[in-house]
Design brief:
The chain is α+β, with helices and mostly antiparallel strands. Among the domains are: 95 residues, Beta Barrel (Elongation Factor Tu (Ef-tu), domain 3), CATH 2.40.30; 54 residues, RNA polymerase II/Efflux pump adaptor protein, barrel-sandwich hybrid domain (OB fold (Dihydrolipoamide Acetyltransferase, E2P)); 76 residues, Orthogonal Bundle (Helix Hairpins), CATH 1.10.287. The protein is built from 5 helices and 24 strands. Strands 3, 12, 13, 14, 15, 16, 17, 21 and 22 form a 9-stranded antiparallel β-sheet that branches. A 4-stranded antiparallel β-sheet has the order 4-11-9-6, with no helix packed on it. Helix 2 runs antiparallel to helix 3. It is elongated, with a radius of gyration of 41 Å. It starts with a helix and ends in a 12-residue tail after the last strand. Belongs to the membrane fusion protein (MFP) (TC 8.A.1) family. One of its GO terms (molecular function) is efflux transmembrane transporter activity. InterPro entries: MdtA-like_BSH (IPR058625), MdtA-like_HH (IPR058624), RND_pump_MFP (IPR006143).
Length: 366
């Protein structure tokens, strides 16, 4: 009896073990099938909006041109000024002393020039009468030319000193507004030190930084508009009168700066530094795109799984603009014949293989 029960228990254990092995083998041989899509190029127009900032076309950083203490600041930030209006005064006592010194040197140089001229004329007369040699005449002529050069140099020093005295009174070069003052009365002004910033309220332009991947899409044949407020505080889109696209890209942000000159009649509600919206409408072009769900991102790594002979292969890709429902543009890393896994997480599992019937590009869209 006991022996029969033991044998029965052993049979049950063997049956359970065989069932477990069979179940494990079933899971082991069950493949992980992942749906794929063929890389396709679609006709997509690059339509997008970016934030921009208003900038004055005419803006000047007014700096000191002489050294001296600022004795008076006649304006403050936000003031409206006219061309030629006095902005600040720099103590010119040192400059005036330099001008007086230059004038004294000019008087001395003119006296030396007169003496040299008289000596030259006398020597020329004596040489013609045979009382002095030709060498003496040459010496007198050289002394006269040296005195003439000294007079010219002293005269230039006087003009320079007079000009420096004019620099002590800093005036506005054109009509505009003071946006910032960077000095106060009592500060020491030195040549090249910025004192204030002046800008003209018109014309204005919008500055926008366009990603490099989108610049070519809207550069030729595209339309650009800027959203600006009008006098009733409502907003409307205006077309720039001209645009300037810088030739160099920012190496860090990978953007290219666009300067959009705005119509004069549409800038009355704008001020420099104000944020605006810029709308780009590009022409349609063939672009290779993939669904956003197919992209695997790990830190700075951007990759997709591509179907291969032994399953899936991870490929690094460089992506462009995200066109939303149309997909993300692929700039580099894929070939037209590549089949991309729509689920990169499942494609990365061991034993994953492409589904027998790949999805079409239309059915893969969200």
């Amino acid at each position: 009896m006991s022996r029969n029960m033991t044998l029965q228990k052993l049979q049950y254990a063997v049956f359970a073990l065989l069932s477990l092995v069979a179940t494990t083998d079933a899971f082991a041989v069950s493949p992980i099938e992942v749906q794929t899509i063929q890389l396709d190029s679609q006709s997509i127009a690059a339509n997008f909006e970016l934030d921009g900032a208003i900038e004055a076309v005419k803006q000047s950083v007014i700096s000191a041109q002489i050294s001296g203490q600022i004795s008076s600041l006649e304006i403050k930030a936000g003031d409206q000024v006219k061309a030629g209006q006095l902005l600040l005064i720099i103590d010119d006592r040192e400059v005036m002393a330099g001008e007086q010194k230059a004038q004294a040197q000019l008087i001395q140089a003119e006296a030396e020039l007169r003496n040299a001229r008289v000596n030259l004329e006398r020597t020329r007369q004596l040489q013609s009468e045979g009382f002095v040699s030709k060498a003496a005449l040459d010496t007198a002529d050289t002394q006269y030319k040296a005195a003439l050069g000294g007079r010219d140099q002293a005269s230039a020093a006087v003009r320079q000193a007079s000009l420096a005295r004019e620099y002590s009174r800093v005036t506005a070069p054109y009509d505009g507004y003071i946006s910032e003052t960077m000095a106060q009365a009592g500060d020491l002004a030195t040549p090249g030190r910025p004192l204030l910033i002046l800008y003209a309220p018109s014309p204005l332009r919008a500055i926008v930084h366009v990603p490099v991947t989108l610049t070519n899409a809207v550069k030729e044949g595209g339309k650009v508009e800027v959203l600006v407020p009008d006098v009733q505080s409502k907003q409307h889109w205006v077309v720039p009168v001209s645009k300037q696209i810088l030739s160099a890209a920012d190496p860090i942000a990978q953007t290219i700066t666009w300067r959009l000159d705005l119509p004069t009649d549409d800038v009355r509600g704008l001020v420099p530094g104000q944020q605006v919206r810029v709308r780009f409408t590009g022409t349609a072009a063939k672009r290779p795109v993939i669904p956003a769900s197919a992209v695997l991102r790990r830190g700075e790594l951007t990759a997709v799984y591509v179907a291969g002979k032994q399953g899936f292969v991870l490929k690094i890709v460089r992506l462009g603009h995200d066109f939303g429902a149309e997909g993300i543009e692929v700039l580099a890393g894929l070939s037209p014949e590549d089949r991309i896994a729509l689920d990169p997480i499942r494609a990365g599992l061991s034993g994953a293989r492409p589904l027998a019937n790949p999805a079409s590009s239309d059915t893969s869209k969200p």
